[in-house]
Amino acid sequence: MNRRHLLIAGALLLAGCATTAVYTAPDAGMVELEPLLAASVAEGSLTIRLLSTGCTSKEAIAFFVEKSGGRHAVAFGRRKLDRCKAAPTPVDLTWSFEELGLPKGAWVAVVNPLGGR
């Protein structure tokens, strides 16, 4: 486990989830949890709203899922910094439960800080 993964695991432990972690990739590249403007679950999908200056896509965001019993904690972090120069604008990104490795009807908590930057 490297320093980046330790930071994510520590945040999830503080959220009350202490089980074996499932990563999207061993080198997901998350340095810190991305501040979100909002998060919502609807019809088997999870949507997050975050600020972008023009270069944020799903491919630029990595996710981390912690499973404990019937509960699932999800954390999001940037793989790539958004280095575009447009005015910061809210962007909605959606993942299906299947993409996140979550069962249908799963109880989901997003552990990222809310409030944006």
TrEMBL record:
**Domain of life of the organism in this record?**
Bacteria
List UniProt keywords, sorted A-Z: Signal
Signal peptide, first to last residue: 1-20
Which PROSITE patterns does its entry note?
A: PROKAR_LIPOPROTEIN
Descriptive protein name: Lipoprotein
Give the organism, scientific name. Caulobacter mirabilis
